[in-house]
Amino acid sequence: MIDDHQLAGLAAQVTGEVLAELRREAFRDGWMIWEVRDEGDRRAHDRLVEELGSARPDDVVLSEEGVDDARRLDAERVWIVDPLDGTVDYSSPYSDDYAVHVALVVNGVPTAAAVSLPALGRLYGTATSPRPADPLRDRPVVIASRAQAHWGQALAEELGGDAVTAGSAGVKAMAVVAGEADVYIHPTGLYEWDVCAPAAVARAAGLFVSGIDGSELEFNRARPVVPGLVVCRPELASAVLEALHP
User: Fold this and answer.
1) Which is deepest, 13, 111, 152, 235, by most CB within 10 Å?
2) If you write DSSP's letter for every residue of 206-224 in order, what string do you get?
3) Alpha-carbon span 115 to 226, nearest angstrom
4) What DSSP designation does 1 have?
């Protein structure tokens, strides 16, 4: 039997392959944007739940696209998943910023996770992601969502760095894991399925991870929301939090 790390990676990988193939089909055949979004969400959810249910039938799944199962609040093992993170970008032929998030939470603590970036052919996991090894760049790169570009720009100015934007929390967090950015911030609340897998993979890679207020993230709560997100090189953590909360 494969272990939880391997299962998270496999589930994220095969779901990403489903999404990539559907996207090629949809663009080729001229689907409407809403059709691409809805069918992507549906097929990804169905495949991900099938993979997890087949391998771990006794576990509970909390999915963005599923019905919240109240049993999860008393369950020891809960998979928190986002079958398609970045739906708007997924339905656009001009962006590759979408991801698949898969995380296992045991008694509220993430223990295994994976993030697939299907359009880029990348898979990151808690057992496989590299730890940051390159020296910190002179001008740190801060990445944020397009809708919150002003937050990213303001923080970059405080740090003497540069700001960039992208879609999908998974894409932005993995940019820090990959060393393409140094800081990812999301200054407002996020659902657990947006955060859990990217945060777990980033922490396993040796990065600093917290809520936007510096708090420890908690998962599988009755209201599955976290207070924003900070993912950054550990050398920058104090400066980032001080700039966000002077």
Assistant:
1) 152
2) T-EEE-TTSPPP--S-SS-
3) 19
4) -
Instruction: Dump pLDDT digits (tens) for 56-110.
Output: 999 999 999 999 989 999 999 999 999 999 999 999 999 999 999 999 999 999 9
**Claim to verify: residue 91 and residue 191 sit in the same structural domain:** no
- Domain of 21 in residue numbering reads as 4-125
* Helices 169-177 + 192-204 axis angle, to 10: 10
Residue appearing with tokens 């890679």: 205
Q: What pLDDT digit, counting tens, does each position of 27-64 carry? A: 999 999 999 999 999 999 999 999 999 999 999 999 99
**Which residue's entry shows tokens 């919150």?**
148
Nearest to 31 by CA among 98, 99, 90, 119: 90
C-alpha neighbours within 13 Å on the C-beta side of residue 95? 17
Residue 115 and residue 174 in contact, taking contact as beta carbons nearer than 8 Å: yes
**120 and 145 housed in the same domain:** no
